[in-house]
Amino acid sequence: MATSDGEKSLIVSFGEMLIDFVPTVSGVSLSEAPGFIKAPGGAPANVAIAVARLGGRAAFVGKLGDDEFGHMLAGILKQNGVSAEGINFDTGARTALAFVTLRSDGEREFMFYRNPSADMLLRPDELNLDLIRSAKVFHYGSISLIVEPCRSAHLKAMEVAKEAGALLSYDPNLRLPLWPSKEEAKKQILSIWDKAEVIKVSDEELMFLTGSDNVDDETALSLWHDNLKLLLVTLGEKGCNYYTKSFRGSVDPFHVDAVDTTGAGDSYVGALLCNIVDDRSVLEDEARLREVLRFANACGAITTTKKGAIPALPTVSEVETLLNAN
């Protein structure tokens, strides 16, 4: 095990960070909500904080508005032990906002304010290439593919990370309201599909990308490509399925009282990346991989037991408590 931060391998997360405005009460529409609480979010930023919370070394690369919210978000990354060396501030555009409805079952609906927001305006020439080159794992989503110049920055960052030997990790994190159309979303999400070595999709994303009504092995394996080392399909409260070149299987969930599913997938991804960044051979050893995915399932489950993503991301001791109780 690494003994200090300086020796730990770096996980770099690329993309958007924003503020979710979450209703003070659950189970109401946005128009019915009596008030909202600020909740920092954005899937790639959540993953970076999830990694740091579990004792890993993480950095975030993206662009925020040069406004109070943008500086607040950069501060939250730093407070949580995430390097902010890869952050740029845009003086002309605001930090992205999202109003989120929490339905009574803990699922979410979104209304976004991004026209354009700072994250969309990150240019390739603004990337901290030294930071990206030092990543052992480079993780990203698909929201950064929606518009230029951010799309070009995303492609450049991926290319630089790959050339430097990083493992590429992709969680599409489908947010249909942000895309011009379903067809464009599917096309762009799949446009970088064959570059990633680790891909995590939810059951809903699997059905969206394949056009199938099933989440069975055959459907999942239709998304397989030769560069892939691990394909994960998360099934919410039903656990997850895993696929590699040599084996496949499923890992059972942990049953908890879910309050808010925000950030559960990001917590899961952070846990996975923490456990493979220093030893990729885990991806070829089914027994060890199953242990890692059990740990990741526990992280995701714990994250659903509190409101908001970042406050709910667990520490190792919280995860061990849940693992030992089951």
Automatic annotation (TrEMBL):
PROSITE patterns (alphabetical):
PFKB_KINASES_1, PFKB_KINASES_2
For the keyword Iron, the answer is no
Pathway listed: Glycan biosynthesis; starch biosynthesis
Q: Which reaction does it catalyse?
A: D-fructose + ATP = D-fructose 6-phosphate + ADP + H(+)
> Can you give the residue ranges of the Carbohydrate kinase PfkB domain?
9-315
Q: Which family does it belong to?
A: Belongs to the carbohydrate kinase PfkB family.
Q: What does this protein do?
A: May play an important role in maintaining the flux of carbon towards starch formation.
Q: What is this protein called?
A: fructokinase
Q: Which organism is it from?
A: Brassica cretica
